Amino acid sequence: MTTDSDLVKRLRTGSLWLRDQSALYYDGDSDAADDDIFSEMLDVWDTLVLDLYRARKYKGCIFGEARCPEDSVVFCEACKPYTTQTDMKI
Ligand SMILES: [Zn+2]
């Protein structure tokens, strides 16, 4: 069974991956993940974040005190209200 902290770890890793891939994409780097993989990862992230905050009632940021990095592509529920960057898409 997945614990809350497993889920938080996956979301952190996913958030950083999405940020890095998005940066590579905008740089025109050929190592960037293609659109299909990127949107698939985005869907997985959305599902996991809903599970954590809605189903498990998790409080706080997945990055803890540090909060989600400002240049993130996705933000946890705790950081979401303070940003408009969530509609940034490839
Ligand atoms: Zn956050």
Description:
- The relative contact order is 0.18.
- The protein has one domain (4-87).
- It is an all-alpha fold and 90 residues long.
- The longest helix has 23 residues, at 4-26.
- Helices cover 49% and strands 0% of the residues.
- Helix 1 runs antiparallel to helix 2 (35-55).
- It is built from 2 helices and no strands.
- The mean pLDDT is 90.
- It has helices at residues 4-26, 35-55.
- The structure holds zinc ion (ZN).
- Zinc ion binds next to loops.
* Ligands and ions found: zinc ion
Number of domains: 1
**Shape estimate:** globular
Gyration radius (Cα, Å) is 13 Å
Structural class: mainly alpha
